[in-house]
Amino acid sequence: MPEGHTIHRAARDQRPMLAGKVLSVASPQGRFHEGAAHLDGQMCLAVEAYGKHLIYQFKNHMALHIHLGLFGRFRTAKLPAAEPKGEVRVRIMSDTHVVDINGPNTCEVLDKAQLIALTKRIGPDVLRKDANPDLAFTRISKSKTSIGQLLMDQSVVGGIGNIYRTEILWRQGVHPLTPGNQITREVFDQLWADSVHLLEIGVKNNSIITVDGVKKSRSKYGERVNIFNKPICPTCDGEIQKFEIAKRRAFMCKTCQPSFSVSA
Ligand SMILES: [Zn+2]
Q1: More confident residue, 18 or 221
Q2: CA 250 / ligand 1 centre spacing (Å)
Q3: Residues taking part in catalysis
Q4: Mean pLDDT of all residues in the chain?
Q5: Range of the domain at 143
Q6: What confidence tens digit (pLDDT) does each residue in 104-123 have?
């Protein structure tokens, strides 16, 4: 699943293509005809990311809300537009560009009240300048749930997915099963700062890079990670433990992330 950096990068890329322009909005695949009709011919005011959600705001106070989920993707190109490729749920066109959205998990039109409700449901987003980390710390410090699970809970912190969760906790030496209420403010601040740092690198490179001082790899996604899906810890050469947190794959190094055993 795309993590927050992907969506912020999409917002950054699509903003100059669409914002401040009158757009044509259609549903080549047909499943979003009705929604598209609310937005077609309207002026787009902003393209913004909130956590893993992308929001296109229009002058008529309507917004297009996209959550890619596991299989969704954006495809952007300059005009002239080619024929839609695959099942294009939404095709957005400005005077210069076309943005196709295939297979999103969520694709809906929101009015102003619904948009406010949505943004309130999303925890402070590590990539947004207006994020208030205190809100996340308050939730975490009152919870017995593991920090590994809390960091991925989008109502607690916006933007962090499984790979960043794993890497941030390892980088900061925090055991993923540490209960939230045992995370001190100091440790939380380190986790928050490292999240901001790593996701900003992710936006810049359009790829997850959590190893200090390296460039994108040549693999399909260009990822460079320390322990996610790796057998050996690069710091201590110890074996990386694999387990699950809330049915998602989790990884940790017993030596570098001490305090709580996996069976705890
Ligand atoms: Zn280690």
Answers
A1: 18
A2: 15
A3: 2-3, 52, 248
A4: 95
A5: 133-253
A6: 999 999 999 999 999 999 99
